[in-house]
Design a protein that fits this description.
The protein has 13 helices and no strands. It has 277 residues and is mainly alpha-helical. It has a single domain (61-270), classed as Orthogonal Bundle (MetI-like fold), CATH 1.10.3720.10. Helix 1 (2-34) packs antiparallel against helix 13 and helix 5 crosses helix 7 (139-163). The radius of gyration is 23 Å and the shape is globular.
Length: 277
Amino acid sequence: MQKSLRIQRVVIMVVAYLLFLILMFPYVIMLITSLKSKSEIYSIPPTLLPHQWTFTNFIDIWHKVPLTDYILNTIIISGGATLLTLICAIPAAYVMARMQFAGKKLYMYLIMVTQMFSPIVLLVGLFREIHWFGLMDSVWGLVLTNAAFNQAFAVWILSGYFSTIPYELEQAAWLDGCTRWQALRRITIPLAIPGIITTVIFVFIAAWNEFAVALTFISTEQTKPLTVGIYAFFGMYDVQWQYVFATSLVAIIPVVILFLCIEKYLISGLTAGGVKH
């Protein structure tokens, strides 16, 4: 029995390491390419490792494009969209989890239907609406758009998490003199932190990686997010791949840092509702 368990454990570890290597392979290629010179990237036959490691590519990207502006704009867009999503989604998810009302299932289905729409499908309508509000070429137009398109997912995952929190805790708080809002703020939300953190990271990454809407709404170089600004290295006849991959690696760093900071909350948030009480 112990021998079979050991074999099973070894097989699981081998499969896990293989999956890790497969998932990390594109990032390794990105790193290697970002350390090559342009002539070496287009050399024939191509080489896997550079003959001369060009670390200056990571310095050059800060001078060739306003990369600092790109990063700050992306942080504002992602952070603002995440905050706005939480402000709207937490009350809506709480109502869906705690209250019974006519048409509740229909409302939940409508929320899920909105998640099926891609921003590209609604791009013309969004363009006219953002232009009417005077938010063209502004990061705030992207904040509103990203918050709107991530709202359905946030309500869905938070309502599932609120449902796992015992209702009796809130009732006890009411007996102690708390209002419903005070019970939500002091009891329910602190207990729902893992679900909220899970929502934060998914909404933040979705807003960080958004491209189509940003490309349509933003035209000024200083207001572009990273996903649009990186296209400055795509020319009419060639692509400066060493700068594209160097910028892409820099763009990954803030998301990795965010994930490492809140990773301990992520698993419990994703598994919320997995056990039926």
